[in-house]
Amino acid sequence: MHIDPTSEQAAAFQGDADNGEPVFMLNLLRFKEHADGVDAADGISGAEAYGRYAASTGKHLARVGGRVVWAGGCHETLIGPSGREWDVAAVVRYPSRAAFLQMVSDPEYLAGTVHRSAGLAESRLIPCSEAPMGG
Fold first, then answer.
1. Within a domain: residue 128?
2. Structural domain boundaries, residue 47
């Protein structure tokens, strides 16, 4: 299960935090059928728990100049392993890696991540940069 970065992954991301270029974070999300952790007693789905996280994150995202570029539901695979692997994909733009790190180190932001953990069964967070197609 991949919900949080390893210390090695976090260090590698931080190592390039001062380049000043925008970063686009590709989020691939699979939700638990039933939320656990802090949201277990409410009897909600993993998607609903993640929705609580998303709602609490909006102000933090705006504060660092980030924005959701696109988000939507995923369907069966056209190229690749058969079956539906992810429930939701999203692209979030941050002005820089440093801006992303500022947001995710804020104690108020971190308090809301309990809902993220309660709702996610699996995830990927892939930093991407702007590049011409084929470049």
1. no
2. 20-122
**Environment class of residue 57 by beta-carbon count within 10 Å: exposed (0-12), middle (13-18) or buried (19+)?**
buried
Residue 63 lies in a domain: yes
Provide the pLDDT for residue 1. Answer: 73
Q: What is the DSSP letter of 41?
A: G
5: helix, strand or coil: coil
Structure tokens at 15: 């190592």
Distance of CA 101 to the CA centre of its chain: 13
0.85 exceeded by pTM: yes
Question: How many whole angstroms separate alpha carbon 130 and alpha carbon 117?
Answer: 29
- How far apart CA 109 and CA 69 sit, in angstroms, is 20
What are 34-68's pLDDT values in tens digits? 999 999 999 999 999 999 999 999 999 999 999 99
pLDDT of residue 135: 59
Sign of the Cα torsion 18, 24, 26, 32 reads positive
**CATH number, residue 26:** 3.30.70.100
Number of folded domains that form the chain: 1
- What's the full length of the chain, in residues? 135
3 state DSSP class of 97 = helix
